[in-house]
Queue: 2 jobs
Job 1
Amino acid sequence: MKAKTPTTERPALTGLNAQELSEVLGLKSFQGRQVFKWIHQKGVLDFGAMTNLSKDLRASLQKRFRLSETSFIDASNSPRSGTKKVLLRLADGESVESVLLRDKDRTTLCLSTQVGCPVKCSFCATGLSGYSRNLSPGEIVEQALYLLRDEAMEDRTPNIVIMGMGEPMLNYDATVKSVRLLMEEEGLGIGARKITVSTAGEAEGIERFAEEDWQVRLSISLHAANDQLRDELVPLNRRYNLRRLMQAVRHYGYKVGRQLTFEWTLMEGVNDRDSDLEELVALVADLKATVNLIPYNPVSGLAYRAPKRSRCEAFRDALSRAGVKATLRIERGQDIDAACGQLRRRQGAARVASPSPDQNSGSAPSSSSISS
Ligand code: SAH
Ligand code: SF4
């Protein structure tokens, strides 16, 4: 399950901080900061449009460097559910999908960290569609830049959930670097508490995460509270069983002292039974934790389905009665977790729609098809 690295040899400029940009581009540090602001604050992926750089410098940079690692393929916008999905093509022909979700007063971006996912959870569309490679920091950040194009954000900053395709802890360094870039004051300036990283339970990554000097939130996708069922649903459990996982989770909770979140995707007859409830309570009752219940979002080709609404509510209420804080996301399609869980690696997606002819184009994506 060792993750491969991207095939591109040069680092994506979008994955560099201001200091690194100055070094790589051979610029003075204030110019590196100017380029960084253009990319991350304004979403400009074209040196030619960076008007506070001299004309000569712009032309020279344009000639020598390729700014972005991805190109826009397609966007689908569903005003009814408030979701926008963006499909980007990567330099090696792979593609990656990410989602924006609008709520009344909140915009959330769901970003991917890998092309497909090597964990292959039995219920997940991403796992089903295979795995190709890790994404670079630039490829992760560019998803946010494209999703935010043409979005009327006023003064809001978006929330970020690293819950798209892939297991972030299997691409740890790139995930951490991209999160730091998203947090940069001179970039999007997203507060650490508005960022959540979700893991299927990679214990070593959770322990490393506990050592980071930040307030970024962590969410653990549990789904089962006994090893037999969890081995089946989340195959990573065979490497880090529940005892090992909970050891890492406790270490994290002790070190960080913040509220933990567990995700529990409710699947009828699989993990919604009374015995599941009892096991879950026994596992987490003594932790400062919230269990986020998400009714299963159907995936074509898989037989899992969500329990009836009344059963979901009963499961939530029973957790609460047992002293475990629980939330239930009911609104289908409106739910960022469910929307994220629907991202699937599209093989040959680069051929689905023709990419923009100029990969460095700083203009907003031109084609935008409307579908749900
Ligand atoms: N790999 C990481 C993050 C991406 S998956 C992880 O597993 O945590 C994001 C969340 O969506 C996980 O909690 C995952 O279990 C959930 N998910 C996947 N497929 C789903 C589906 N069909 N319905 C509801 N949730 C799903
Ligand atoms: Fe990978 Fe997460 Fe899907 Fe499991 S649920 S296959 S870890 S993306």
Job 2
Amino acid sequence: MSLHPIFNIKNGELYVENVRVMDLVEKYGTPLHVISSNRIKQKYGELYSASTEYWKNTLICYAYKANPTLAILKLLHGLGAGAEVVSAGELYAARLIGVKHDKIVFNGVSKSPSELSDAISVQVGLLNIESLTELKLINDIASKLNIQVNLGVRINFDVPVRTHRYISTGMKFHKFGLGVNEAFEAYKLALKSKRIRVRGIHVHIGSQILTVYPFVKASNNLVSFAEKLYETLKLRLDLIDLGGGLGIQYSLEDKTFSPQEYCKNVFPIITEKIGTIFDDESIIILEPGRYLVGDAGILLTRVNYVKQIGDIKWVLVDAGMNDLIRPALYDALHRIVVVNKFDLPSVERYSVSGPICESADVFVRDYPLPKVDIGDILAILDTGAYGISMSSQYNCRPRAPIVMVEGEDVKLIRRRETYADIFMCDLNYR
Ligand code: LLP
């Protein structure tokens, strides 16, 4: 296997950046999440330079749901990223680390009245609606609070994408956004409200998308729709939100596209219309999550047992589907490396599984690895996005700590949970 971008080899041993992986294991134990700070910086930098080459007013709003660990949010904030949030909890995190209100995009298909109040009170830069009822609710809340809302409309253009069916979001049988007719209606109604500044248009067609074409299609649809808004309502929008969804390479078969390819194909579709149907000072917003943090993270886990039942050789580790649910939920492939044997040939085939009492608790099946022994340390790769954020305490398992590596430096950015943490909110049991 070619070397993963966050790894280095020194003196025949595996390092994340300049830190020996086995030192991390010895110091912090397993399961352990490791995040490479320089990889996040590199990914952000590449997307930022590619996009600003086409349009200087580009705002990259990191999708917090991918990994809302505060130190990661802070790192991206320091690089200049805004925040894409989908709950009052994520909004709280953005405020906590000091993201300016106008760099926050608030999305969500079923925002509660109290979440809308929070978003409106904070005066987020863009609040994207997903129904006509939500528009009415926003108008009522904004009138009560006497605050102007920067409003956008998420439109469902029925764009198919090839990805797992659970993470495709832009087709007409999905719950997301407004259909084109309702969306037009929403703009018309919103324009009548004194409390609403109609500014944005939003598409997000899905996640882990590996070709540029669906983004091109969605952007063309967006522009045609905006043309209609301009021609019939004289509306010139200035916040063009293209969503997230840029895929990463989980397996060697995954052919991804570069940020340059994405921007070269998508941005001109929009920028060509800035100054005509879009405002001269328009901001293009991107909402990447996985692209920024996905391949910056690994999950380290220790082998507890190796056993064979029938033809299957099981490697049983101390991380479970509560730490990383993607294989169980989406059949997602995360490559695995035996850290202390990374240079040995793969001579066996194993199914790697965790301690959870469920048959879905399997990370990989029939997977080639060197001969594995008890005590070996496995690295499950590319767990930076939707690993930690979707983790749970299922089976009363404390969630794993997170360390961030930058060059030679290691920072513990989340401690391991204790058993007391698990029951922290329980009441009335004595
Ligand atoms: N914007 C919106 C409105 C979204 O719904 C999402 C993701 C993003 C941006 C960021 O998408 P990304 O750039 O990360 O693809 N748990 C799944 C992924 C769910 C994505 C949900 N929405 C997984 O583990 O693959």
